[in-house]
Write a structure and sequence with these properties.
This protein has about 250 residues and is an alpha/beta fold. It has a single domain, classed as Rossmann fold, CATH 3.40.50. About 40% of the residues lie in helices and about 20% in strands. It has ten helices and eight strands. An eight-stranded mixed beta sheet has the order 3-2-1-4-5-6-7-8, with helices on both faces. Helix 4 packs parallel to helix 5 and helix 4 runs parallel beside helix 10. The longest helix has 19 residues. Bound molecules: zinc ion. Zinc ion (ZN) binds next to helix 8.
Length: about 250
Amino acid sequence: MLNDDQLLRYSRQLMVEEFDLAGQEALAGARVLVVGCGGLANPAALYLAGAGVGELVLADDDAVELSNLHRQVAFRGKDVGQSKAEALKAQLQALNSDVSVQAHTVRVDADWLDREVASATVVLDCTDNFATRQSINQACVTHRTPLVSGAAIRMDGQLAVFDLRQPDSACYACVYGDGTDGDLACSQAGIVGPVVGIVGTLQALAAMQVLLGNPMPATLRLFDGRTLSWREMRFHKDPACPVCSRR
Ligand SMILES: [Zn+2]
């Protein structure tokens, strides 16, 4: 049950037909795991905390750097040198004390992910390296936990939702393969702030849709920041996928 303050706080989204009280309660009952606390996670976690998600679990082993601040909009100059997970947690709690936030300053590995994904309602992949993305995907496939994957580099963004609650859902490896090379980090290639912001914002919206029980199409969305345009590519479960087709 929502108290009077909560009814007021969430009133504008409660007015939306697709949302309503049941949707608000679904958000309040959710535990969302956000892996990576950089440019994707900053807007994603701010919107999810603002919307009233019950529990947010944040993980990142990095500290805030001066070169992050042009895109990592939850951080302030005073946060430079602090743990990203802790600095993001502080901002989320300042925004909405209804939300329980756990910050983990850790480099996530397969065991950690297996434990945390097991208790998550939905997972946001906000990382920037391929090996971690594969480990997150493996844990989400194992636990059949929906995965909202985002990526951005230079002027390009990508978004895909893998609703692994569905037995015929594709997984990240069905679309991207299972290799471990091809990493291109923002620290080497560069990134424009609003591009990563758009993708992170859509990760929050996709996670909310998943929590509301709305089906998400199996579509890889590619954003081109030069032309502000999107391309969409349908994807399918790969019957030979080494991750999801052996279970
Ligand atoms: Zn797969």
